[in-house]
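Q: Got a minute? One more chain.
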Amino acid sequence: MSLTFLIKRLAGAIPLLLGISLILFAIIHLAPGGPTDVYADNPSVSPEALQQIITRFGLDKPVPEQYLLWLKAMVTGDWGLSIRTGRGVLGEILARLGPTLQLGGMAMGISLIVALPLGTYCAARRGSRLDTALTFLSFAGISLPVFWSALLLQLVFSVWLGILPSAGMKSIGDGSLIDRLQHLAMPVTVLSLATIASWSRYIRSGMVDVLAQDYIRTAYAKGRREWGVVIAHALRNAMIPAVTVIAIDFVTIISGAVITETVFAWPGIGRLFVESMNGRDYPMLMGLMMMGSFGVVMANIIADIIYAALDPRIRHG
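A: Always. Here it is, folded:
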């Protein structure tokens, strides 16, 4: 991949993110209600105090002017103040990012370690009983709602067996590694199940197509061992279709596993998004969604770089 292509992609990301920010800002402000509704329904908040809140956060200005002020602040690194807590948006997001990276990183690592050999084996033994069984389990994993899987695990391992904590990041007064791993076990499992099912399907599909190519048959004709051909010749090219899916899924998990973090009371980005949405916290919602949008755009650029590394035939000008 040439440096020129990378510069062009990065330059093209700027107007794309600008357009995304404009659309998100418009959608948030066109939604029914507003951030002051939370305070207006509270009898302890006087009209004077409510007006101070409106003035402090610039909610009395026209929406186009609010957008320009927000955009200027965002570019300079000032993501504004949370209407819900009054603290800096960027600081709160960074404080919640660590737990989400911990949860999402472990889930993505386990998913890749399991899905890669699983998809490869199913492709090499396609049509076998094991391939059929794993295909059924994969579709079941994709079809099961995340919240249902999470509640089922809590019922079995927390309520019935009592061997794992039902929620939270750690027990009160206990910060040991074992305790943290116990709290991670169920949310990581929930995130991994659907991801393993999806990734293994993509890897299997790509591997089946590659194994039917002429150069694979040529490798077999030269007397190469089956798994040597599969791993050395087929796997690298078979991974190309799955790269984009894996990259986007990784960003999706990091930007907020909303349902999983909510069910397990995990103090990460996903739970912060739900709290901000319930509190109509416009600055926090914009910060979270723009961070997610930036991550998706960068993931696509990284995927292009991986394409070139996996397949030297790919050339970008």
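A: The two ends are 8 Å apart (CA to CA).
Q: Perfect, thanks.
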